[in-house]
Specification:
heterodimer, A: mainly beta, seven-stranded mixed sheet, four-stranded antiparallel sheet, 0% helix, B: mainly beta
C-alpha cells in the first residue's frame, strides 16, 4: 500500500491569487494523478504526472491554469493559478503502484476561493 | 467517450436493510473495476476491486460486488447495513488503452442509513 500526505489540508484564498498543493508519498511510484472533486460532485481527473516528463492534462484542464511539477518519484505539486470561486473544490493526489490493481488517494486539500 | 454511471444519487434506508448500488460502464475492452467509499469528513478508501477470476468479489465491511460482463455492470451489495455505512460510494473503472490507462469515477451515490 501507499501512504499519501497532502499540504495544506485546507485553505481559504482570494480570487486572482495562486495556491500550490504538495503531495508526498511514502514509497517511490511511477504514476501520480491529480483529481478535483467539486462540491457535491464526483472526482474528475485533472492530469497525470510522471517523473521526468511533462504532465498529461485531461480535456478541460490546461497547464497554464494547473501547472504540475514532479521532481522525483515520491513528490508532486499542483498549482491552482489565478483562482476564481469556481475553483473551490477538494483537490486530491493519487498514486498507482505499477500494476493497475489499486490506486491510492491522499486526504485531499479543501480549497475555498472568495 | 467512455463513462461510468451510477443509477442512484441518493439512497436512504434503515439499519438491517439490504443495500444494492448499481454501476454500469461503457467500454468494451479490458477494464479493472473498483468501489470506493468516502465516509463523512474522511478520504477515499477502497472497498473492493475486480480484475479477473471469480466475478463475485468480497470486500471489507461485509460488502460484495458482482461483475456481469454481458451487462457491463459491477453492482455493489451488502445484505444488512449499519448506521456506520452512511457514506458516499463511488464506482470506478480503469480502462486500458494504448494512449494511457485512466481511472474514471461514476457520479457517486450518497447513502444514509437511519438508526
Amino acid at each position: 500500500s501507499a501512504v499519501i500526505s497532502q499540504k495544506p489540508s485546507r485553505d481559504i484564498c482570494q480570487r486572482g491569487t495562486s495556491l500550490t498543493i504538495q503531495c508526498q508519498v511514502d514509497s517511490q511510484v511511477t504514476m501520480m494523478f491529480w483529481y478535483r472533486q467539486q462540491p457535491g460532485q464526483s472526482l474528475t481527473l485533472i492530469a497525470t504526472a510522471n517523473q521526468g516528463s511533462e504532465a498529461t492534462y485531461e480535456s478541460g484542464f490546461v497547464i497554464d491554469k494547473f501547472p504540475i511539477s514532479r521532481p522525483n518519484l515520491t513528490f508532486s505539486t499542483l498549482t491552482v493559478s489565478n483562482m476564481s470561486p469556481e475553483d473551490s473544490s477538494i483537490y486530491l493526489c493519487s498514486v498507482e503502484q505499477g500494476n493497475w490493481e489499486t490506486q491510492y488517494f491522499g486526504p485531499g486539500t479543501r480549497l475555498l476561493v472568495l | 467517450a467512455q463513462s461510468v454511471s451510477q443509477h442512484n444519487h441518493h439512497v436512504i434506508l434503515s439499519e438491517a436493510a439490504s443495500l444494492e448500488l448499481g454501476c454500469n460502464y461503457s467500454y468494451g475492452g479490458t477494464v479493472n473495476l473498483f468501489w470506493y467509499v468516502q465516509y463523512p469528513g474522511q478520504h477515499l478508501q477502497l472497498l473492493l476491486k475486480y480484475f479477473s477470476g471469480d466475478p463475485l468479489v468480497k470486500g471489507i465491511k461485509g460488502f460484495e460486488a458482482e461483475f456481469i460482463k454481458s451487462k457491463f455492470s459491477f453492482n455493489l451489495r451488502k445484505p444488512s447495513v449499519q448506521w456506520s455505512d452512511t457514506a458516499e460510494y463511488f464506482c470506478a473503472v480503469i480502462i486500458f488503452k494504448a494512449a494511457g490507462n485512466k481511472l474514471t469515477f461514476g457520479g457517486g451515490t450518497r447513502v444514509l442509513v437511519k438508526p
